[in-house]
C-alpha cells in the first residue's frame, strides 16, 4: 500500500496531477449545482 | 410531412430541455463507471513503464484531457457558427455551455503536462510550440467567455463570441501538428490513424477508457449548463 502511494518516487507528480484534476472537476460540478439551484427558483 | 424525420424537433429549447433531463443521470453514471474502470486499469493492471517508471501514469488523464480540450473547442466553434448562420438560439447556447468545460480540460492538460514534464524533461514549463499553442487555446476559451460576459444583450453576445470562436479554430490544427512542424520537447502523437499505436495494449486500453469517461463527463456538464442557460434566458 505504502509502495503504491509512493509511485516509485514520482508521488508528487502523479498525485499532484490526479489531485488537481479531481478538485477542478469537483469544483465545476458544485458550481453547476449551485447555478442550477439558483435558476430553478 | 408526417412521414419525414423532424430534424428540428430538438432545436426547440423546450424539447431539448426535456430530452437532456432524461439523459443526464445516465451520462453521469457512465462517466463515473468509465473513470473507475479506466483508473483501475491504469493503476492496478498496467505495469510500470521501463524508462519512465510510474510517472507515465499521468498519461491516463493528460492525453484524454488534451484531446478533449481541442475537440470541445471545435464543437463549440461549430455550434457558434451554426447559431450565427441560421440564427438558432439553442446552437449559440450550446457553444456558451461548452466553453467553461473546454477551458477546464485545457487547464488540466497544461497542469498535468507540466507535472509530467518535470521528471521527464527536467522542467515544468518551456515555451515550445505544443505547450505555447495549448496555452493560447486556454486564452481563447477565456476570451470567449469574457467577451460574452461583457455584452448584456444575449443575442449580441452570441454573435460576438461566435466570431472569436470561429477565428480561433485556426489554433487547433496548429496544436495538433505542432509536434511535426517544429522541433519541440513534446513527443509526437501516441495514437494516430496512420500507424499502429506506439504504446502497450494495456496502457492504451486504460487511456481510451479514460477518453470515454471524459467524453461522458463533458457532455453531462455541458448539458447541465445549457439547461441553466435555457432557464435563465427563456424564463
Question: In short, what is this structure?
Answer:
The complex is a heterodimer of chains A (41) and B (235). Chain A is an all-alpha fold and 41 residues long. Chain A contains two helices and no strands.
Would you write up a description of this structure?
- The complex is a heterodimer of chains A (41) and B (235).
- Chain A is an all-alpha fold and 41 residues long.
- Chain A contains 2 helices and no strands.
- Chain A has one domain (2-40).
- The radius of gyration of chain A is 16 Å and the shape is rod-shaped.
- Chain B is built from 7 helices and no strands.
- In chain B, α3 packs across α5 and α3 (89-121) runs antiparallel to α7.
- The interface between A and B is medium-sized, with 22 and 30 residues.
What oligomeric assembly is this protein in?
Answer: heterodimer
Mean pLDDT of chain B: 90
Shape of chain A: rod-shaped
Give the radius of gyration of chain A.
16 Å
Chain-wise SSE layout:
The complex is a heterodimer of chains A (41) and B (235).
Chain A: H1 2-6, H2 11-40
Chain B: H1 13-45, H2 59-86, H3 89-121, H4 129-150, H5 154-168, H6 171-181, H7 201-234
Helix pairs in contact in B: 1-7, 2-3, 2-5, 2-7, 3-4, 3-5, 3-7, 4-5, 4-6
Keywords, separated by commas or semicolons:
heterodimer, A: 41 residues, mainly alpha, 2 helices, B: 235 residues, 7 helices, 75% helix, globular
Amino acid at each position: 500500500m505504502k509502495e503504491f502511494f509512493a509511485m516509485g518516487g514520482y508521488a508528487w507528480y502523479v498525485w499532484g496531477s490526479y489531485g488537481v484534476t479531481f478538485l477542478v472537476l469537483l469544483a465545476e460540478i458544485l458550481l453547476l449545482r449551485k447555478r442550477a439551484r439558483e435558476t430553478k427558483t | 410531412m408526417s412521414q419525414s424525420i423532424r430534424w428540428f424537433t430538438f432545436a426547440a429549447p423546450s424539447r431539448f430541455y426535456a430530452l437532456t433531463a432524461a439523459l443526464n443521470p445516465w451520462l453521469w453514471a457512465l462517466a463515473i463507471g468509465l473513470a473507475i474502470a479506466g483508473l483501475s486499469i491504469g493503476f492496478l493492471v498496467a505495469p510500470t513503464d521501463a524508462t519512465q517508471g510510474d510517472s507515465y501514469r499521468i498519461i491516463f488523464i493528460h492525453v484524454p484531457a488534451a484531446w478533449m480540450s481541442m475537440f470541445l473547442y471545435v464543437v463549440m466553434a461549430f455550434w457558434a457558427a451554426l447559431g450565427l448562420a441560421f440564427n438558432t438560439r439553442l446552437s449559440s447556447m450550446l457553444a456558451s455551455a461548452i466553453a467553461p468545460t473546454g477551458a477546464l480540460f485545457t487547464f488540466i492538460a497544461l497542469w498535468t503536462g507540466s507535472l509530467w514534464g518535470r521528471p521527464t524533461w527536467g522542467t515544468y514549463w518551456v515555451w515550445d510550440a505544443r505547450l505555447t499553442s495549448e496555452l493560447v487555446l486556454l486564452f481563447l476559451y477565456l476570451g470567449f467567455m469574457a467577451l460574452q460576459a461583457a455584452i448584456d444583450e444575449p443575442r449580441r453576445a452570441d454573435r460576438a463570441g461566435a466570431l472569436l470562436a470561429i477565428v480561433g479554430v485556426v489554433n487547433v490544427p496548429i496544436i495538433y501538428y505542432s509536434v511535426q512542424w517544429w522541433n519541440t520537447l513534446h513527443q509526437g502523437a501516441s495514437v494516430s490513424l496512420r500507424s499502429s499505436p506506439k504504446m502497450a495494449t494495456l496502457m492504451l486500453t486504460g487511456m481510451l477508457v479514460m477518453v470515454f469517461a471524459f467524453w461522458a463527463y463533458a457532455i453531462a456538464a455541458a448539458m447541465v449548463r445549457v439547461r441553466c442557460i435555457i432557464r435563465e434566458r427563456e424564463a
